[in-house]
Amino acid sequence: MNVVELKNLRKSFALKRGGLFNRTTTEVTAVAGIDLIVQPGESVAFIGPNGAGKSTTIKILTGIMRPTSGSAQVLGLVPWRDRTKLATRIGAVFGQRSQLWYHLPALDSFELLSRIYNLDKNKYKARRDMLIERFALQPFLNTPVRKLSLGQRMRAEIASSLLHSPEVLFLDEPTIGLDVVARQELRDLMREWNRDEGLTVFLTSHDAGDIEHVARRVVVINNGQVMLDDTVSTVKRRYLGQKIIGARFHEQPGTFDMEGVTELKRSEYAVKLIVDTEKTDIDRVAAAILHAGSVADITIEDPPLEDVIARMYGDQRNGDQRNGTEKASQTGADAK
Amino acid sequence: MKKLINWLQLAAAYVKLNFRSHLEYRGAFISQVVAMAVNDSCWIVFWTLFFTRFPVLHGWTQKDVLTMWAISASGFGLAVTVAGNTFQLARVVGRGELDSWLLYPRAVLPHLALGRMVPSGLGDAIFGYVLFFAFVRPDWQHMLLFLVFSLSSALLFIGFFAIAGSLSFFIGNAEVLAEQWIFSLITFSTYPSPLFDGVVKILLFTIIPAGFVSYLPIDALQGLSLKYASLSVLGSAAFLAIGVSVFYLGLRRYESGNLIGMRG
Amino acid sequence: MNELRKYTWIAWTSARSSWAYFGDAIGRVIFFSIILYIFLRLWTTTFTQTGATHLGGLSITQMLWYLTITEAIMLSGPKVSTLIDEDVRTGTIAVQLLRPMSYAYYRLAMTLGERTIRFLVNLVTGCAIAFLLVGQLPMVGFGMLTLCATLPLAFILDFLGLFLVGLSAFWLEDTSGLLLLYSRGVLIAGGTLIPLDLYPSAVRPILSWLPFANITAGPAHVFVSPLPQDLAMILCRQITGTLVLGAIAFVIYKQALRRVFVNGG
User: Fold this and answer.
1) Among A20, A195, B104, B260, whose CB has the most other CB atoms within 10 angstroms?
2) Partners of residue A12 on adjacent β-strands
3) Does residue B12 form part of some domain?
């Protein structure tokens, strides 16, 4: 049985604007025909710009919202109809929502969750202790949540969402605001649970690193439709294999003539380069920069996701135009 | 039956956690509880002053007014201590906190209700029970009836809060309206309803059902009347049922996502 | 014509943008109407039941006007203490304290402005409700004058009380309890709901000198029975109260300032 099965999922809202006298109702389409199948044990990253329809889709998948048309099934259940039943089999970690009580230690929240989910006492204790160990929560288990660092809190948050042994975990921007170390820790945990425990992971993120390190499949959403649905390795090769390096010098730097390195911008003392990591290693470029002059500041970042998606979109359009693929005509038909 | 026990256990767990959560700010918590108990007591001072000068009001004595206060205070206190989130339902819905509750494998309204405790409610509850047992000094029949009414008015309040809070499913910015509506119920439950007649009386059993808290119970206690007692309890049950229905109606609307100002 | 349209649009837009405030104001009017209605009913019933023509020296119309005024004053107060509490907790007060005395005056000025408007709104509403239930009051003319004479100090007195409550935020975790106690003080000790003349004779003299009674009961009393000697008495008490509370406020304020600099704001 598929974990997630979406067929031509559509959702539009009637947005009412205006004052008391001249009300206008515009129809806003958030989801414009999404087909998606996720199988057990998959790890899917669901990405797209803001307003692309990600949150709406997740709300439909978790049963919070009803679609306008189309069908959705999660673990064989219709989410909004069998919401209570589904809730025992899925876990959710959303940014705005915390399952943990702010003023109390995480342990107390775990206790409450075991009651909410009606977990068998002994099974709960065993699972709880296992999670505490795997997520390294022991050091701060009895500290009020408000005193924890964001990284610790997120670890506890995700652990709490696994207490009732869900089959699939929905995560919304789980690593946002975390420092590099905490982020990596969290990614390792998510990947571990997916690979070793067979937990199906469905996460939304703006972070390319999340996609690279946790997911094995990427679904790109834009304008309420699936733009790209492929493995992470493919997408990585074509779109994510880039880094942007910015450097500021104390004097004017020389030129950078290396394979895979293109200059984006240059000013009197600064330069911005884009590096194709398939062709050149980052550390070679960094070394070159440090040799090019006395460096005042150096930053290495991922290109913004919006740019990456724009490129994907451009490529897809070009590809479809060239090949006249079935997908394009199907998408076109659906859009009507 | 098993389900009920399960829910009671869950409620107990929530009350415990809410209580401990509030105790993190011990000073504030205690001052809110005490202040509310003192606030309620001030009204007893008022009525004592009043009844010292004017012993009877439409057949109501000081004891009757004290009893009325005990019922409404204890009922209200019970309602917002255990099910405090219904008191602030409009805010919960308006601020998008509802989604959280939808993700749990529990019936939404009762579960959501348990999520918050209004600390001053504890002051009301303590005041109500102390007032009744210390000052009214009932015999066991009156005491039993009182406990029943205390519970039934708590249920009435909860149902009513659910109705008022559910306004936010249908009207934007319903917080102020809900607040005023709830306030008027609380206020009218603390004044002898024989003061009012005609249209207002009808109001007190419909739109602002204080009559089920202040009128019928006192009538029932005055004459140990089972008829008035059952009417009172039935009324409370009715409002609870209406509250639940209105909430789930609003929830359906919420799920379709067509609320004014809803962000996709 | 275009000018008119422009200004109408500006007025309409500004009205729309203050809808939240407007909604708040409506809420307050409803609040006030309910309370007033209940108490008018209470006293009307009492008069009818006891068959008396005068209670506490007041006739029924005088009694109802008394209540209207006390309620109008009591429910006109903006939440000064809550604002001060916020200022203390968020540290905004440190910014305001650059010139010591001006924070208090700043708050006072804002309070008086807002309060006057709210009082007038309450008064109009109250007049409507009381009028519907009873009727005209003799000697309204003089009553208005004496009322106006006693209102400013009444507002200032209440402000001083709320100021002290708000300042307690420096020492207390939560001031809402203290605020509740203070407002109950005004309600009960202040003769807001029952004229002081109906209180037991033992407590009457004490209560009449406390600031509470001179915030609501005092002005209401000289409105319904505007005798010069009563007016003088009330003003005298108000001035005394203002001086005493003012002195206390000054001392507490200085203490509070010290706290700001010790804690770094």
Assistant:
1) B104
2) A29
3) yes
